[in-house]
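Task 17 of the worksheet. Students: predict the tertiary structure of the chain below and write it out as structure tokens. Keep your answer in the requested format; marks are given for formatting as well as content.
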Amino acid sequence: DRQTLVAVLQFLRRSNLRESEEILRREARLLGDDLGGSVATVASSSPGVAAVAAVPPGKGSPGGAPSLSSPGSRDQVSVVFAGSTVKGRVGGGVVVEDQPDVSAVLSAYNQQGDPTLYEEYYSGLKHFIECSLDCHRAELSQLFYPLFVHMYLELVYNQHESEAKSFFERFHGDQECYYQDDLRVLSSLTKKEHMKGNETMLDFRTSKFVLRISRDSYQLLKRHLQEKQNNQIWNIVQEHLYIDIFDGMPRSKQQIDAMVGSLAGEAKREANKAKVFFGLLKEPEFDVPLDDEDEEGENEEGKPKKKKPKKDSVGSKSKKQDPNAPPQNRIPLPELKDSDKLDKVMNMKEAARRVRLGPECLPSICFYTFLNAYQGLTAVDITDDSSMIVGGFADSTVRVWSVTPKKLRSVKTAADLSLIDKESDDVLERIMDEKTASELKILYGHSGPVYGTSFSPDRNYLLSCSEDGTVRLWSLQTFTCLVGYKGHNYPVWDTQFSPYGYYFVSGGHDRVARLWATDHYQPLRIFAGHLADVTCTRFHPNSNYIATGSADRTIRLWDVLNGNCVRIFTGHKGPIHSLAFSPNGRFLATGATDGRVLLWDIGHGLMVGELKGHTDTIYALRFSRDGEILASGSMDNTVRLWDAVKAFEDLETDDFTTATGHINLPENSQDLLLGTYMTKSTPVVHLHFTRRNLLLAAGAYSSQ
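Model answer:
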């Protein structure tokens, strides 16, 4: 180390960089006793320039790779050398003994790794990690998978096919089980040509795999690689991995396992720091008609209603502005129409009769089974007032049923409408054509399976998205298609209306989600960032945010106002297929092919729970109207009810947890499980709580 230092100092003196030399001397005296820590971060810079750059703490080297000199509390100095890059990389600060000359020190990085030694490098590191202390072993084991993939791809890329094959066969069995699908894709890439068209692998090469490691474990790794002069591995760590270093205790195997598993590793802690307004918007105030003036003078049983004291306005009981809510006008929302106000009044009356759910009082479940769908049911939605149900089918049809005695009717033709007296009280009834009344309406228009459906909150419109790359808006007054939105070039997997109507979101195979407004042909926002298909989309109850789940095994939360990604949640081990926000807007539940439901605290950006029990993909998640119960429906033909109140109480969301991601999930989620309900070989694809907290579930009977 001394010799290298002397060489560097001589070089600086020769180049007349006295100031830098002084700084380095001072630093060297501080770092003199730390033989393991290298003095300088080596990064490539323009040829023939040597400069000293001050790096703020924790920011790493100018290349964006973690700084080799451990980012401490004081500002670090990183020496940036010129030249000798290998395929655009420079070896990272690995000190070579007995070579006082700088150019000689740097030329050590010039040889490309010997392909026959890759197995030796990897097994050497593997041996080192497996023999390290328990507390470090769990953290350092995270390196196995990304290094394995990059070393394999490097061998393939440099056309060492036989070495690549033997490397793969020797080490692929050591990887965590949740990477099996990725490894299957990887095993088919055996030639350089194969890599060109493979998007997953291109992403892997270009996006940095994120590992969250404590400073102690990182220092241990760095020291080992430097002693062994294992440049090949160190280069990969430098170039392709982003190491998010935190101060504090290393995490345990359970804590790491809970959070890893996505295509690009964990989320950087920085990614979940932005402020999110997760509170609800204040309900608008308006007058409620007295009960006896109401059209429905009697309730279902036929008894006259009890008179209630007159309330001046519904708003009187609405809470004060939620401190975590976004400003009311942060994004423009549509004005309430009279019919919306009436609907809100109805909603409040229903809410007054709502059943309070809890562990002692579970909801009744009403299951809608689609018979003779021949595996063709691909999407379901139910209106907020539970009056209609829609199914999207693989034969490209959209079918709408009325589930109340009231039949579905279309508006009369224009000629007939002109005859109606517009002043009459029942004009809304008169415009409907009784001849068209039926329980079922079939909507034709898509040219591929329909993967997502969504009713507008006012029940006037219906969205459907399809394999044909379009999203269609249908009128439920005329049962015809009004608009086809073309923006995705590939299948669209999901679409959903905003809780306030007007806006809607779609997500598809092109890896982006798009925000639309019903009266615009083009999307208003494009949310790009996922590394694989966007499989499901959900609006936050305040409509200012959108959650997307993806086949890259991450969930992202996007800000509708500016299109920024404000949260990245990792922890699922398979593609995400369901999302649900809690009614108070604070929490998000997500379900995936791994059969786990994960619970997230949106404000702190933390995982706060894991619900295990399902044995197959979870396609449906829904919170009860007051948020006491979470219902999950799965391909394993069960509906499960979970105690949401208990799951979210006594959360540890102190600053330490948020800073380091030391989450402590309860060992056993069985005490949160309130009930499991089997269907008769019918996978559950949709769940919906009615306004009175009756749970509706839907799925298609499968005969096998």
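Marker's comment: Confidence is low (pLDDT under 50) at residues 31-111, 292-318. DSSP finds 18 helices and 33 strands in the chain.
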